[in-house]
Amino acid sequence: MTVIDDPLIVGGQGSRLYDGDGIAAKKRVIIDKGVLKSYYIDYYYSRKLGMEPTSGGSSNVIIEPGEKTLEQLIAQSKKGILVTGFIGGNSNTATGDFSYGIIGQLIENGKLVKPVNEMNLSGNLTEIWEHLVEMGNDPYPNSAWLRPSMFFRDIFFSGV
Length: 160
Hints:
Blueprint: E1 3-5, E2 28-32, E3 35-36, H1 43-49, E4 61-63, H2 70-75, E5 79-91, E6 97-108, E7 111-124, H3 125-129, E8 132-135, E9 145-146, E10 150-152, E11 157-158
């Protein structure tokens, strides 16, 4: 997984020339093929940590897309859930534990079978990323987070 923060995309929803601390915006690789390369550090925390400030927050976050369409990702799943939305939940930022309500579609033998609603997805944020198998080639264009569809294996839902 590669994640890039690019505040200089013309017309991007998160584009900017400077951040809230007045730090000049620049394109940065945050995660390179699964390896953390950079942090978001504002002036306040740079002084506390004794590190150079980078920026206090994200701008246009680009998650590198893969090769397959969403339809191809669905077709390769024998049984699964296509999550199309979240309906509340919570997370513990200290431990990474989370629990979110989801809505979506049940997948069986590579086909969308029926809608599902009020299901629950829970686990640990650090651990769930270890189950990421593949990215789609369809970055969502209407957000500052340009992220494609993501295919996870061995993720468990309650409510089916």
